Amino acid sequence: MNIFKRFTNLFTKAITSSGAAFGGLGGARWSTRDYANFAKEAYITNFISYRCIDMIAQSVASVPWSVFKQDGKNRVEIEQHPLMRILHRANPTEGFAAHMYSVTSFLNIAGNTYIDRLSPETGPNRGIPAELHVQRPDYIKFILDDNTKELIGYALEKEGKLLKEWPIDPITGVCDLLHIKKFHPINDIEGLSPIEPAAKSIDTSNEALTWNKSLLQNDARPGMIMTFEGALGDDQFNRLQRQLDKKMAGANNAGRNLIVEGQMKSVEPYGFSPHEMDFLEGNWDLARQITTTFGVPSMLVGIPGESTYNNFKEAREYFWDTTIFFYLQLFRDEYNNWFFPDDDKTFIDYILDDVPALAPRRQEKWDMVEKSTTMTINEKREELGMEKVGPEGDVILIGSNLIPLDMVGVTEEEVDDSESDMDDEDIVVDDETDEEASNDDGLNVK
């Protein structure tokens, strides 16, 4: 099934068509684009796009989260906050890492991801999410206002049955279903899937692999044109055709000899062999196009011949800087806006202290802070995420060999001479303090 052709037709239908109005909220529903086709052709069939989505989702899911409260310039971790429960276990069947893996994967396949929250309606934790559930994008339908055509809610439908609805508060815009989407320049409601701009490359890659498999099943040879002297009879022609189909086709028949009756004039191939088409390099070019679309350095996917980065470590750091941090910050802002609509001091945030990919960068920061000559001990410890040691840590330690700038170039003999020149005649005491400066013998120093 061709993604690109299907997308053109389905996208037009998604914009212009509307379903039957039913359910408690009423209004027309728009069908989502063919998510199942994207999932099959790009995620299930194509190993390059699958690996890109999987790497992004794994990296995002590997980062732990916590709840914090802003206290002046500092932020304090709140270990006993009710939200800490779902930051470890999103719902009874999956942890938060599995939750984030699904959220990220759906966003890259469909361009949209949907999270349903279950919260207590009474008690001290009223309104605070107790469970988070990710919904499949193709099950979510949009509910539009009949007159304005604006989005007023979401509906969960499976096999034509309405299972649940989430209205959007017309005043606050709050909804118990969080919709995170990628930017789409011509669709105000749905996000743009990375698969859509990569559709041609993904389709071509899939077709190339299918074509190559067919050739392998035919002894890796292109089709042959057999020319005979004179015309073959029907029986002879049919017998030759059956022999070619049954005894020559398939990998198990590779290398078998063909016995032909009659006077054969010539045998010539038609089409191109994999070598003539430079199949492998052509498919790697397609792979590079796909990885570029998803923002994954092709070196990390295992594409041979890549020399864009000096080493694997540099490529991995680039991947985190340009791709993973975007998803982490996007999810952080969207979740905080959803969890704390009226609280600017409390928030959730990701913690990068134990991320293996960022270990070299943490070491660089540690070395830079450790070598600083303008920070106190407590400032260094705070910068590295450590507790202060008390007032004794509010000091700046410097090397014993450091000297003032105006002393640079002055020899030790010159320093000694300058000190010896300071004799009694150079000491001047104010007249008003002569009596206070006198010693026990009654001598005044002037």
Shape: flat
Number of strands: 12
* Helix fraction bin: 25-40%
The helix/strand class is alpha+beta
Q: What series of H and E elements makes up the topology?
A: HEHHEEHEEEEEEHEHEHHHHEHHHH
State mean pLDDT (0 to 100 scale).
76
Strand arrangement in the largest pleated sheet:
1-6-7-8
> Number of helical segments?
14
Helices, strands, pairings?
Elements: H1 3-16, E1 28-30, H2 35-45, H3 47-61, E2 65-71, E3 74-77, H4 96-110, E4 112-118, E5 131-135, E6 140-144, E7 151-158, E8 161-167, E9 177-181, H5 199-216, E10 224-228, H6 234-248, E11 264-269, H7 274-277, H8 279-294, H9 298-301, H10 312-339, E12 346-350, H11 359-370, H12 377-383, H13 412-420, H14 434-437
Antiparallel strand pairs: 1-6, 2-3, 2-12, 4-5, 4-9, 6-7, 7-8, 10-11
Task: Report on the architecture of this protein.
The chain has 446 residues and is an alpha+beta fold. It has 3 domains: 1-212 and 277-357, no CATH class; 223-270, no CATH class; 358-393, no CATH class. The protein contains 14 helices and 12 strands. The strands form 4 sheets. Strands 1-6-7-8 form a 4-stranded antiparallel beta sheet, with no helix packed on it. Strands 3-2-12 form a 3-stranded antiparallel beta sheet. Helix 3 packs antiparallel against helix 4 and helix 5 runs antiparallel to helix 8.
